[in-house]
Amino acid sequence: MRLHGALALLLLLCIHVGHQGADARGDGFVRVQGTRFVLNGSPFFANGFNAYWLMSLGADPAQRGKVTSALSQAAGAGLTVARTWAFSDGGSNALQYSPGRYNENTFQGLDFVLSEARKHGIKMILSLVNSYDSFGGRKQYVQWAREQGQSIGSDDEFFTNPVVKGFYKNHIKTVLMRVNTITGVVYKDDPTIMAWELMNEPRCPSDLSGRTLQSWIAEMAAHVKSIDGAHLLETGLEGFYGASSPSRGAVNPSGYQVGADFLANNRVPGVDFATVHAYPDQWLPGLDAPSQLRFLGAWLDAHIADAGRVLRKPLLVAEFGKSRRDPGYGGGDAQRDAVFGAVYAKVYESARAGGAAAGALFWQLLAEGMDSYGDGYEVVLGRAPSSTAGVIATQSRRLQGLARAFARARKAQHQQGKASGKGAKGGN
């Protein structure tokens, strides 16, 4: 981008939200200004990855090297953000054995992850509960409540039962108030953490009006913010449109009305930025690859536009990918590279034009020796040759270049302001 173009966008940003105050502090916390992430007063673009397994391997001294290796390789590819689980509910190796009872060894695994991310300059998004049964999720919370005598009909009562909500609020407080045994920093005070996520892919299909999930998000967002006002918060939504925007219903893949509402849910006070996931291979398995790419483009265009014009918040593509296990995938990684390229192009073009897209996190990053964790979507950066690794690194360089252009424009603006001030002083 030419310097005067970056300067114009920066001036628009400053006029819209102001450039002074907490967002300009050099304290290492990622914050939001308008439709932008900022870090120490400068624009911050999130090129990153998902790695749900980090805590569980971090809890095993024999496996910790894979955590370090993955984060080191990610940093080498210019990746700046990782999303992972801060939950594991029920079972012998869980984080939370039962309501309020925690496995210290597993918690120390998360401590290790945060300490290593800090060393490698990677910001973390921590998700606090799963919508699905894996790692316990809301099903486990509901079962705990039943064991305490609660009469609960379905797992969707996770969102309404006061006992279940109390369990979850306690988990939020426990994680946010955790003192890292390695760094000594309380999680709520740790700038290594970029954001909290209320739930991985929240859905409430028993109430397609969206009111149940809307109420839950409002209550839990307020709870998080009552404990931690420093970190950003997002919902974990996949991006499906709901009752508040019937004209957008056609954007959803067919059959995906799940009780979530992209616009209404992200308008909740305390929700700092919007998220969208993108899996056309899962949502539209009957379509060929070119048709899935066309859907992907329209899906992202709609959400980028709505985040900017309606929500006026940044948008993070928090999950996307293409599985090698899909029928018709073919040899090589050309189809996956095309999906990555399409997502990255939408993010970059929006960011360059001052739009709401602020980054994308692919699913999922693995280290060497983790074949059993493979789900078809995995990327192993250390495994060469990898065309996908090149696509990822190229996006990192482009976003870094864009950030530098904004930084140069900001410096030029500052110098121009100083010169104007001196001129005015000399004329008095």
TrEMBL record:
User: What Gene3D superfamilies has UniProt attached to this entry?
Assistant: Glycosidases
Instruction: Indicate whether Signal appears among the record's keywords.
Output: yes
Hydrolase as UniProt keyword? yes
* Cleavable signal peptide: 1-24
Q: Which SUPFAM superfamilies match?
A: (Trans)glycosidases (SSF51445)
Q: What is its EC number?
A: 3.2.1.78
Give any Pfam family that matches: GH5_mannosidase
Q: Where is the Glycoside hydrolase family domain?
A: 29-364
Gene Ontology BP annotations:
polysaccharide catabolic process
Which chemical reaction does it catalyze? Random hydrolysis of (1->4)-beta-D-mannosidic linkages in mannans, galactomannans and glucomannans
A GO molecular function annotation here is:
mannan endo-1,4-beta-mannosidase activity
Similarity-based family: Belongs to the glycosyl hydrolase 5 (cellulase A) family.
Q: Which PANTHER family match?
A: MANNAN ENDO-1,4-BETA-MANNOSIDASE 1, PTHR31451
Q: What is this protein called?
A: mannan endo-1,4-beta-mannosidase
Q: Which organism is it from?
A: Setaria italica
Please name the gene that encodes this protein.
Answer: LOC101771899
